[in-house]
Write a structure and sequence with these properties.
CATH superfamily of the largest domain: FAD/NAD(P)-binding domain
CATH class of the largest domain: Alpha Beta
Shape: globular
Strand content: 25-35%
Helix content: 25-40%
Low-confidence stretches: 339-345, 347-367
CATH architecture of the largest domain: 3-Layer(bba) Sandwich
Number of domains: 2
Mean pLDDT: 88
Number of helices: 11
Bound molecules: flavin-adenine dinucleotide
Length: 367
Amino acid sequence: MSATKDPRPVLIAGGGIGGLAAALALVREGYRVKVIEQAGQIGEIGAGIQLSPNAFAACDALGVGEHLRAKAVYTEEMVMFDAIDAKRVASISLSEKFRERFGNPYAVIHRADIHGALLEGVKATTDGIEFLTSTKVVHIEQDDDGVTLIDAQGGRHGGQAVIGCDGVRSAVRQQYVGDSIRVSGHIVFRAVVDTADFPEALRFTAPCIWVGPNCHLVHYPLKGGDKFNIAVTFHSDQPEEWGSMDGDPAEVQRYFRPTCEQVQLLLRIPKAWKRYSTADRNPIEQWTFGRATLLGDAAHPMVQYLAQGACTACEDAVTLGLALRARAATGPAHSRCTSAPAWRAPRAWCCRRARWAASTTPRASNA
Ligand SMILES: Cc1cc2nc3c(=O)[nH]c(=O)nc-3n(C[C@H](O)[C@H](O)[C@H](O)COP(=O)(O)OP(=O)(O)OC[C@H]3O[C@@H](n4cnc5c(N)ncnc54)[C@H](O)[C@@H]3O)c2cc1C
């Protein structure tokens, strides 16, 4: 395949879900890939995520759909409760009709399992992949011949192109776009608990949301039903900065004071919380800058309650792979990699969606 004519790797900044999906899409098209990750190891921590049908379609296209299906918990419905009076407000069936209509199920999964499925896929496809951990990307140089990625220790890594998969605070985006993140003011506390500790009456095989004033709580089963994911969101009345830290239960209690006994019970279960201050960015029209392009949260970060960031990162990777294939016979390698017109169309779609989300999201006055 023509990709092998240029033996230099495509550099992928960031080894999260987007980075691994991109790596898989590229190795399947015959490219050598080097994933450069700032963390000490390639892996996902954190809790659960919801997988809508598009995630299954994307992972099927990447050849890892079966890995994903083996780990996912399939949900029967989505349920909304009133967090004040505990009444069931609405539900959406996710059963056979839903699956027929969208071609795939709606499911929930632990982050480590989707990340693991992508990693297994990469390893099974090729040995032409290199992982570099504990390496933080700080700058990119590029010219007509190639790119050089510079890390925080001054190390230089050459390649034919770079894909910025380095998340909301992307260094690649910072260099080429230079826009600011928008701290949403929405704080998420997350925990994964044993099912034995979860109230029996609330063990629905469903993403359930309890909605209250400036706050909501989501729960769903994970790991074949052995665990439950609990995610609490509230709108902070304090100045916030993007980032994560250990969470103080007293802070959650303060925002959930008016909620019903069921919600209070759920809030008391986790012995430890992780606290995330979330952010997104204004949509941008251009994601490709010569030999550098953006993917996943680096390209279109969105608020977490759309439950689409990981799903669309996988879709991005599929689209990039298809664009590379379509252009395989034409143009120099880097233009195949970063300028294929097909690569731009879904982005625009994503941007429109992100813009919609942005326009409907209330903002706190944040630091
Ligand atoms: C609370 C919460 C709930 C969510 N729920 C859902 C959901 O239900 N469904 C869904 O689809 N999405 C969900 N999302 C969104 C989803 O987690 C993200 O959209 C997705 O993880 C984005 O993947 P990514 O690889 O683009 O970025 P990230 O996951 O942020 O990965 C970026 C990687 O790059 C590395 N990195 C960063 N900077 C550098 C650097 N300078 N050099 C080298 N490496 C670097 C990071 O260490 C990380 O490994 C949720 C998000 C949150 C916060």
